[in-house]
Amino acid sequence: MATQPPSSAAAADLYETASQPDPSASAAGDAYTFLEFNTQGDDFEYPDFPELSQPARSAPPPPAPVTSSASSSWPAPPLPPDALPDADLAPQDSTPPASSSSPSPRSSASKSRAAAAVADGLAAGVAALSFEEPPGAGTGDDGYDYGKGDFVEHACRYCGIHNPACVARCNVPSCRKWFCNSRGNTSGSHIVNHLVRAKHKEVCLHKDSPLGETILECYNCGCRNVFLLGFISAKAENVVVLLCREPCLNVNALKDMNWDLSQWTPLIDDRCFLSWLVKVPSEQEQLRARQISAQQINKVEELWKTNPDASLEDLEKPGVDNEPQPVVLKYEDAYQYQNVFAPLIKLEADYDKMMKESQSKDSVTVRWDIGLNKKRVAYFVFPKEDNELRLVPGDELRLRYSGGTSHPAWQSVGHVIKLTAQEEVALELRASQGVPVELNNGFSVDFVWKSTSFDRMQGAMKTFAVDETSVSGYIYHHLLGHEVEHQIIRNTLPRRFGAPGLPELNASQVLAVKSVLQKPVSLIQGPPGTGKTVTSAAIVYHMAKQGQGQVLVCAPSNVAVDQLAEKISSTGLKVVRLCAKSREAVSSPVEHLTLHYQVRHLDNSEKSEMHKLQQLKDEQGELSSSDEKKYKALKRATEREILQSADVICCTCVGAGDPRLSNFRFRQVLIDESTQATEPECLIPLVLGVKQVVLVGDHCQLGPVIMCKKAARAGLAQSLFERLVILGVKPFRLQVQYRMHPCLSEFPSNCFYEGTLQNGVTANERQSSGIDFPWPVPNRPMFFYVQMGVEEISASGTSYLNRTEAANVEKIVTTFLRSGVVPSQIGVITPYEGQRAYIVNYMSRNGSLRQQLYKEIEVASVDSFQGREKDYIILSCVRSNEHQGIGFLNDPRRLNVALTRARYGIVVLGNPKVLSKQPLWNSLLTHYKVQLSVDTYQCLL
Ligand SMILES: [Zn+2]
Ligand SMILES: [Zn+2]
Ligand SMILES: [Zn+2]
User: What's the gap in Å between 169 CA and the centre of ligand 1?
Assistant: First the structure.
């Protein structure tokens, strides 16, 4: 019997539940999907959301009166209505039009805007300030031809608009390009667009602009990151103060000034500079300007990275910005497969390298410690700018001291062995001598990029193509999507399908084990909490008992490998956990199973010489070259011996390419979390001679993280599991969930698993005794907490935060703690790194209970919480805006992950007006309303 070709209905089903990024949507490429670029999910811009038809969104404010004493201060802008304490969320559009002479809303209040000498750097000519356009500007009467705008130095590099009041210069020395404050065809203004894409953050206004040549900076600390800057009106006359959100808005000294810090408003609103700062070009100006699409903007920004002087005309040149060949469902042969995937892996590797190597930090403060292995450990904060850099244990960093009067220059590389909750990095240094432990300040840190994982993927694809024995013929054709004769593996099936040391299997788990043992290729879908790890361990147990040699067990992440290794080991099988050399100093919950631990603790007199040398090496830091040689040979032999005697070897997918396994063959391979691995990553463990493969995962949860958008668009973000499902391989679904309170599993089951998820726990088992949290309906531990605060772009320019929502997260956390929940039971999750960092800071500053309690609470991104659970989850949705949509909250898989982490209860904070425009969120809101049969929009506190 031949494998059925996929029916279009099956494929459509998959798209509905797993929801691949829509390639057409990404081609249309709204510029600002870029703000969330660490996952492929960002291509889900809700189609009918952005309102792009109105070029000019805010009208210029009325001219502000300037007093003669204000020569060093800024005139106060009219406050947008939403800056008022009692104001509802009103769009910026309602700012009074230029012709209006109505007073600013606040001037009628007693706290009227006021003078205090403030922002420096303002020319004395401010008295002549006028928001009127200079005569002739923008009318074309000046004889200026807009089509040739690029000849004027300060013309917008995108569209050519050059009205001095409407443009600003990027102040990054290597850039210095000018951009206007119009949106054109994109959802953000050109200047903001450029800053986000180029990752530039400083801006200077034009000398002929109303405010004169001014670099925007914080009045208090001089910080120039425009994404951090906002303004407040001082309580004297006509003056505004620019202050940064972190730290100055929270500096106590400033609280004593006569300023109302609660009125702080970001300078960038709705992805546009406030119009009193940089005017929005008139509709007429915009119509006459060059029309540039988001896609062209992407491309020209890409070009500027290598050629800063490139023009839009250069985009037309051949060879510029070729899109890579996309992945397909079926491949002729493994060479075609390699030809498609190799360039994608190369793109991702180049992007990863570029991004990591640009992360150097100076002025780093270090504290020193010494590890148990007597190695030097440096602790320091290596701030991650945004989602992009995910430092993980095992990463290599270089610590440098450039030298000074007291100490000569020094440097050493080391491996990250730990990341503390306080965002501190612990780096174990390779050097043991000459470490400047007497110094603490003035260090620099660079990322040392390693190509290992990418090289191994490329290597696996090559092996797949050239080595006929790399995989069985059946699997070769199956993976390439060819139609192959259906095969059954004739094994004597075990009498019972459970395994010693594991919990009893339920019916769907038994069926899964049974079916897997008879097939050369199987997919197991494990929805949240359905006992995927136990089932996998039972499968591995029975495979190992079949006597076909060692079983290889992999997963893309170290955490998943550790969990599975532990479960398999509890069946009594001999398990070796192979770790990357760079991670040997990283503590692991299965330390005793690791190869490096077993090598050190092998109790065998023959090994005594190796142990002697090891001891010497530990004490002296190094060995003589002949001893080192001898030591290495002995160690290799010992490693080999331990690996060979194992029943099961566990490692990451990339770890399967470790040279220490190069002479091993594995007929049976199980890959857990395979839906989070790229295809070439999955291939690494498979090309070691596989005849039977089990892929475990859930394509209704988040897929692999691809940093390079081009590679993601071309399909690198699709896992092998998913492609096989589309090809018609039916995954075996585990159906009983043991995690969530039944009322929490209902919505995910209906929405993502066709209602098939059954509950293995009862409401009673999820009733926490002694906790009196004020749930709106006591036996339904969930609710939606309505938020109306607005989102802001975070300091990195590439993420978001929402301050009011963060404040309410703290209130909910405090309520949980007061009601008897302990910190380790609570998880705060949010899709945005900007919000994650802000919540951590906010709780430590403003939490009303003991600080330590808040420190112990895990605040993490939704993506990093995949695979994990907490008793109580607080989900902060962040997005709240008039025009920008909900970005990667649009990805149904992210919503699925977010909703399925909690065991006992969940609180969702979000703006229902914005969220409900997306159908899935709309049904979630409806679900909450119906389930709670109370007004969902009630506030809790
Ligand atoms: Zn720039
Ligand atoms: Zn422009
Ligand atoms: Zn500041």
Answer: 8
